[in-house]
Amino acid sequence: KKGSYDHFMQKEIHEQPHSLTTTMRGRLKDSGVLLGGLKEHIKTIRRSRRVVFIGCGTSYNAALAARPFMEELTGIPVTMEVASDLLDRQGPIYREDTAVFVSQSGETADTLLALDYALENGALCVGITNTVGSTLSRRTHCGVHINAGCEIGVASTKAYTSQIVAMAMLALAVGSDQISTQARREAIISGLSSLPSNASEVLKLDAEMKELASSLIDSESLLVFGRGYNYATALEGALKVKEVALMHSEGMLAGEMKHGPLALVDENLPIIVIATRDACFSKQQSVIQQLLSRKGRLIVMCSEGDASAVCPSGSCRVIEVPDVADCLQPVINIIPLQLLAYHLTVLRGFDVDQPRNLAKSVTTQ
Ligand code: UD1
Ligand code: BG6
Ligand code: NA
Hints:
The protein is of the alpha/beta class. It is built from 14 helices and twelve strands. The chain is globular. The structure holds uridine-diphosphate-N-acetylglucosamine, 6-O-phosphono-beta-D-glucopyranose and sodium ion. 6-O-phosphono-beta-D-glucopyranose binds at residues 56-59, 103-105, 108, 111, 154-156, 358, 360-362.
């Protein structure tokens, strides 16, 4: 089943050009997107006062990656809920809300309990899942199957990128009545159709990520700074490193750096800064300068050809990735970090597909 690969996680990382293709198959048209499962509900979603994204772990991070373009293309405020925290707080959910539940397995107990709670409160409940026939798929009013193919590695990889793409299609469908964003939507649709080839391109960084992993093998900790579209990339990159490579890692909002995390910076702690091209680029350039002036040990992820723009002194390690439509950049940017976490795990001698203490699907509370 693993074919020529040593581990399922490795296979699933390398499968992404294909899984992204199957997620979009039959759904992407020049004129817009067609999501069979949503057509009867799009008008209701458009009228909702708020969209609430709900999930756990990697699925929560995928929703966080979708939040900026969902807000931008629909104009509807989007709030984020970790499923267990929504339940702990019994946070307010209203009939006028659209609650979007994101779950690879469709069987995560916390997410399903949050779904019961949202159904009781009368919200329109939409599922984003990889599993046809799952409890999530059955109990939601409507939804989108991401069609990424079966995922076996406990650390979610291809489901993450397909979830983001499914939510991009959701945002395009909900926002399709807005004339002012027509050109923007067309650019994103064209960006979506090139994603599989961009994913193939970025996978060529495999050997470089293995080399980077070997330089981090003895580190105690790894920070990842992102912002805007790539805040989620920082959280998800750090989650991959902690769950499989068993190394302490935190993803952080770069805008919060000066409000605390800056105290940790020294010449030993490795820090990945995501600084690909988007509206936050110049802010990330100044973050890099502030970190360098405190002798930070930096690994900067930037768009192809931007090495000297992000690190004029040449003192950072640079990962160059293909440039895609800014809001889709998280789909590409996570791939080198998945590869890094994978190689770090193998080099540190840990179990890649079955990490210590974790389960693929947590079906108890
Ligand atoms: C559907 C078929 C697909 C077929 C296509 C042809 C299924 C599962 N899918 O795909 O095989 O090729 O039509 O037009 O038979 N749903 C939820 N909650 C979720 C996910 C989905 O309620 O979390 C519902 C949807 O609202 C929809 C149904 O499940 O009613 C199928 O969803 P999806 O597979 O995404 O629909 P299509 O892409 O139209
Ligand atoms: C578990 C897995 O904790 O559940 C994570 O170990 C996963 O990898 C999380 O992200 C949520 O799973 P699902 O199936 O709801 O997306
Ligand atoms: Na359903």
